[in-house]
Design a protein that fits this description.
This protein has eleven helices and 18 strands. It is an alpha/beta fold. The protein binds pyridoxal-5'-phosphate.
């Protein structure tokens, strides 16, 4: 038996490619003389590598970043392997061999990784130095190590811990990076993520690495009004029903109707990334009408009040408000979590 084409989905994620391109140009401009690359890890922050990567490539992006080796094949279907870096670097010999085979550049984060890379044959790589976040990266003391001297470093980079705040750590990391990277024979230098770009020209160096803001996130107020929403989730109404006064809705009967009302059961649940933290706080939208959530979010559905949009029917699409700053405020989730939790059942 051959499988015929899939029936229509009940969840879809519209990607506003104009906004994506516009956001990259805005970030590239804010990066001054530096080139803005693109962090596309975690399936381009949940939006889909197959849509995001070709769009950014055609807009002019030439440096892309993923975290895992498993993310490489889907990306190099669209760009040259030399334009892709793997932030986690090699943990096993097989990772270094995979980098050699594909031509993707590893980010070297420790002397252990430097050794692995050199043993696999070496060649161009990037180097991450830790300037205060204490995650991945060689320490400032290790910068002068003979292993580092043997590396063929394309980009030397570091990562800011608190760029989304006015923290003293920003200037401290900047000065540490400026000093330490001066002694490293790299072709170019890179420090700023999305928020770091808004800290000013000093932070841009040669290459910036925005992720969140490309996809509509606003990590600092300087970016409000510049960055536009990219992700627009929509879900279909599966069933309409009439409640009587006293009827309750969903698990644990968390909502009880006090009067007769029309409700809609919508194909959107926490398995799709619409987490329980939206329960009793969120609302879906249809045209200008607000459709408040009733009761708890289930795995595969939510129930909404259709009082303000009684014309809606089974099969109609409703909008999931996803303006990230506002959605974050309401749900208590970070803008990053809101994007990266959008599940595979969304047709992208
Ligand atoms: C994820 C990541 C970025 C992008 O950060 P945003 O805050 O999303 O702009 C940049 N650099 C590194 C090392 C990262 O891990």
């Amino acid at each position: 038996m051959t499988m015929s084409e899939l029936p229509p989905p009940t969840l879809r994620l519209r990607l506003d490619t104009d906004a994506l391109i516009g956001n990259w140009h805005a970030l590239d401009r804010m990066s001054g003389a530096a080139h803005a690359g693109a962090a596309i890890k975690a399936n381009a922050y949940g939006l889909g590598v197959d849509n995001v990567v070709p769009t950014l490539r055609d807009a002019g992006v030439s440096n892309f970043f993923v975290a895992h080796w498993s993310e490489v094949p889907a990306v190099i279907a669209h760009i040259s392997p030399r334009q892709l870096s793997v932030l986690h670097g090699p943990l096993h010999e097989a990772d270094a061999a995979f980098a050699q085979e594909t031509g993707v550049l590893p980010v070297i984060n420790s002397l252990y990784q430097a050794k692995l890379w050199l043993q696999s044959g070496g060649g161009p790589c990037h180097l991450m130095i830790d300037t205060g976040i204490n995650r991945l990266g060689i320490s400032l003391e290790e910068v002068g190590d003979p292993l580092v001297a043997q590396l063929e470093i394309d980009v030397v980079m570091s990562h800011l811990a608190s760029a989304d705040e006015d923290s003293e750590l920003n200037a401290l990391q900047l000065s540490r990076f400026s000093c330490a990277s001066r002694d490293i024979p790299a072709k170019s230098r890179s420090l700023a993520n999305s928020a770091g770009i808004a800290l000013g020209a000093d932070y841009a160096f040669d290459l910036t690495r925005p992720g969140l803001a490309l996809y509509g996130g606003i990590p600092r107020s300087e970016m409000a009004g510049v960055i536009r929403q990219v992700a627009h989730p929509q879900a279909a109404i599966m069933q309409k029903r009439e409640l009587r006064a006293g009827d309750s809705v969903g698990y644990n009967a968390a909502f009880t109707a006090t009067q007769p009302m029309t409700v809609g059961v919508v194909s959107l649940g926490y398995a799709d990334g619409y987490l329980r933290s939206w329960s009793a706080k969120g609302a879906l939208l249809s045209g200008g009408a607000t459709l408040p959530l009733l009761g708890k979010v289930s795995m595969d559905m939510v129930v909404v009040d259709l009082s303000l949009a009684p014309h809606l029917r089974e099969g109609d699409w409703v909008n999931v408000p996803y303006e990230l700053l506002e959605a974050s405020r309401i749900s208590g989730l970070s803008q990053y979590e809101l994007l990266t939790s959008l599940g595979p059942r969304f047709r992208r």
